[in-house]
Amino acid sequence: xxxxxxxxxxxxxxxxxxxxxxxxxxxxxxxxxxxxxxxxxxxxxxxxxxxxxxxxxxxxxxxxxxxxxxxxxxxxxxxxxxxxxxxxxxxxxxxxxxxxxxxxxxxxxxxxxxxxxxxxxxxxxxxxxxxxxxxxxxxxxxxxxxxxxxxxxxxxxxxxxxxxxxxxxxxxxxxxxxxxxxxxxxxxxxxxxxxxxxxxxxxxxxxxxxxxxxxxxxxxxxxxxxxxxxxxxxxxx
Length: 237
Known about the structure:
The protein is an all-alpha fold and 237 residues long. The protein is 85% helix and 0% strand. It has one domain (1-6, 15-76, 97-236).
């Protein structure tokens, strides 16, 4: 994520390249879900636990989206009511708290999912770590670009992204410590929760942002390349 921010302040990627990265990341995460998480969930035959965990995952992600969207609307509403030019102009001291809180929560969930992956097995955790690395690279790019457009300096933008990325370590620490000894029904609930969260991330976040650009065959191909790459990697690892 820090590397993505540094790349953005040095030379921001074009919209087509950013869309390709988002497509590829979505394909990678979808492959990890289909190849690693889903088979482990199905083979234990615990429908009640799966329904509970999956439902909680969907509810939490929808609730977080509602909460963060309200936060993002508050600064724009405040600017609309302000009439003084000093308030209307963006300054280096003004932070987009709605955006940063949304990203922090997203990264915290990513860390928890990473902990869930390693609780399932070393291979699952490693593949998920690679997949989330690609996602966070694109997230670091997008966040730094947004901060630069808001009037923040290059060093400040990278520092803010670096501070926000610490939420990943917090989430991963909670996931690996709390879930390390999870077995049976509890693990099924946790895995199903992670399954719903990852599917939400792919369909409602990554692909939604990726489709903001005009879709081309090459951009669509990036999704399937990401999926196939990690499907083959999961088979040979």
